[in-house]
Amino acid sequence: MDYHRGAGVEVRIARIFNTYGPRMCIDDGRVVSYFVAQVEGLMRLMEGEHVGPFNLGNPGEFTMLEFAEVVQETIDPNAKIEFRPNTEDDPHKRTPDISRAKSYLAWNRRSLSERVSL
């Protein structure tokens, strides 16, 4: 933001919260956002005129186990859920405030069941 103010250069700042993917632990308790919704938020940010940080993520928290169970039920109820240890630097809880993204970008997260069924 200082560079934007000092040099007059257009900037966009996105704080991306917990998109899911490989090596995520089942029971870590963090919020999870669907990748496509993240990209949609990033595109709205980049194409828009608003400067400043925007949090893009899901403010509704659920555990990775809850997420895995929804995926399991949606894809294969007989699938085995694997448990792996968290990495040392893995935060246990993180919940973003997405009110700026809602107001300025008209962006909102999708529900877990919407994301899994896509």
Write the layout of secondary structure elements.
Elements: H1 2-7, E1 13-16, H2 35-47, E2 53-56, H3 64-75, H4 99-105, H5 112-117
Parallel strand pairs: 1-2
Describe this structure in words.
There is one protein chain. The mean pLDDT is 79. The protein has a two-stranded parallel sheet. It has helices at 2-7, 35-47, 64-75, 99-105, 112-117; strands at residues 13-16, 53-56. The protein has a single domain, classed as NAD(P)-binding Rossmann-like Domain (Rossmann fold). It is mainly alpha-helical and 118 residues long. The longest helix has 13 residues, at 35-47. The protein is built from 5 helices and 2 strands; from the N terminus they run H-E-H-E-H-H-H. One of its GO terms (biological process) is D-xylose metabolic process. Keywords: Decarboxylase, Lyase, NAD.
Q: Short summary of the structure?
A:
With 118 residues, this protein is mostly helical. It has helices at residues 2-7, 35-47, 64-75, 99-105, 112-117; strands spanning 13-16, 53-56. It contains five helices and two strands, in the order αβαβααα.
- Our count of helices gives 5
CATH superfamily: NAD(P)-binding Rossmann-like Domain
Kindly provide the radius of gyration, computed on alpha-carbon positions and rounded to a whole number of angstroms.
16 Å
Q: What would the principal axes of the Cα set say about the shape?
A: elongated
Order of helices and strands: HEHEHHH
